[in-house]
Amino acid sequence: MITLPPEESLDLIRTLRMASYGMLFSGPSLHYWFNFISKVVPKKDVVSTFKKMFLGQAVYGPIINCIFFSYNAGLQGETIPEIIARLKRDIIPTIKSGLIYWPLCDFITFKFIPVHLQPLVSNSFAFLWTIYLTYMAGLKKPGVKVITSS
């Protein structure tokens, strides 16, 4: 049995935030993304696989990461300026990390997995990625300068 010390107990609210993100955004968007990308680039040869990988990194990745950080921060009560500051601070490092992690995952998924199973396989890779995202999302709120006119 796995137990945590009392000071490291399970954060139920954070767990629910992540589960709701997966159910509302990640799961459905992956379904539509993989169906869309298989229609736009239908072949499974190496060149087509690299095209799909590029589109995932250039289009899907940045959009879904912005949605993740915005949704998570919004549920934690951050204001719009705080969410924007978080995106400015976290999105580029996250995308850079994604460029290291996702290409191999995408190559395997697009080259060897049938389209109807691609969301499942991608979600398996995403499990590890989500650990990284929750770490990034858990970083201290960025400072926000509020300019007021007096």
TrEMBL record:
GO terms for cellular component: cytoplasm; membrane. The keyword Nucleotide-binding does not apply. Pfam families: Mpv17_PMP22 (PF04117). It is a multi-pass membrane protein. Belongs to the peroxisomal membrane protein PXMP2/4 family. It is found in: Membrane. InterPro entries: Mpv17_PMP22. The chain crosses the membrane at residues 20-41, 53-71, 120-139. This is PXMP2/4 family protein 4. Keywords: Membrane, Transmembrane, Transmembrane helix. It comes from Aegilops tauschii subsp. strangulata (Goatgrass).
